[in-house]
Amino acid sequence: MRQQIKDLVFAFKTGQIPVPIVVTEPRLVAADLQPVLEQAETIVGSPVQVAHGDQTWTLSPEQMSSLLDVRQEEVNGVATSVPFVSAEKLGTFFDTIEEAVATAPVDASFKQDGTKAWVVPGVDGERLDRAKTAEAVSAAALKRSGRVAEVAVTAAEPDLTTAEAERWASKTFWRSYSSEYWGTSNRRQNVRVATQYCSNVIMAPVTSSTSTSRSARAPPPGDS
User: Fold this and answer.
1) Where are the alpha helices (DSSP H) in the chain?
2) Among candidates 59, 66, 169, 159, which has minimal Cα distance to 104?
3) Confidence of residue 213 (pLDDT cuts 50, 70, 90)
4) Helix, strand, coil abundance in the chain, percent, nearest 5
5) What gap in Å lies between CA 165 and CA 62, rounded to an integer?
6) CB–CB of 165/119 below 8 Å?
7) What does the alpha-carbon distance between residue 81 and residue 37 come to, in Å, rounded to a whole number?
8) Of all helices (H) and strands (E), which one includes residue 75?
């Protein structure tokens, strides 16, 4: 075809050149999408229950329609369109149930009996696993009956774990020291209040020093 065009141009002639056309088959035909359509109709066909313990939430068919998405998966070596419930589109729904599903973790703590100290272990909490819960909703939605999805949770560690507390803890009683102080009643009250806030507090070691220099102080008025 290219040579035919050049021949006409250089001969300063006009004419018609037939354009060859190749017929190609479409990658997808209606029959290929029929299983996808059937699965999609099943997903949005009736409500899906989401359960956690004795709590349940319902996703209506209208909600399921808004959550529907399609991805490409390889099935028997062939790229196939597969409908599923999107975890991203479930975000708003997850926001409404997350607090009800979650269990707050408990920090590790310390106790002592005056001669030794020990660690009280922390307790892991639970939080919503969005990706796995979305998979459970997809699986339940592809069923024609028993359309119940169990909420998936993952562990939530406390801010202070047992392992961290074990590293911090000193379990050996080294020595104690006390002294009596007889100040004014106001001073004793101030010390009493301060010690209330220091009880059960672990303080990092500090380096202190006492200056040997003293500054001169002016005598009170009238003194020579």
Assistant:
1) 2-10, 30-43, 61-67, 91-101, 130-141, 162-168, 185-198
2) 159
3) very low
4) 35, 20, 45
5) 50
6) yes
7) 10
8) strand 68-75
C-alpha distance from residue 185 to each of 142, 190, 197 (Å): 77, 9, 19
pLDDT of 193 > 80? The answer is yes
Tokens of 15: 């004419």
Q: Which amino acid is at 23?
A: V
Number of residues in the chain: 224
Q: Residue 200 has which token pair?
A: 């059960």
Q: Which two tokens stand for residue 131?
A: 């990706």
Angle (deg, nearest 10), helices 91-101 and 130-141: 110
Distance CA 50, CA 147 (A): 9
> Tens of pLDDT along 39-68?
999 999 999 999 999 999 999 999 999 999
> Could you say which DSSP state residue 224 is in?
-
The DSSP letter of residue 215 is -
**Beta-strand pair 48-52/148-150:** parallel
Six token digits for residue 202: 């672990």
Pairing of strands 117-120, 109-112: antiparallel
Give me the domains of the chain, ranges plus CATH numbers.
45-171 (3.10.20)
Count of Cβ atoms closer than 10 Å to residue 137 Cβ = 28
Cβ atoms of residues 141 and 50 within 8 Å = no
Single-letter code of the amino acid located at 94? F
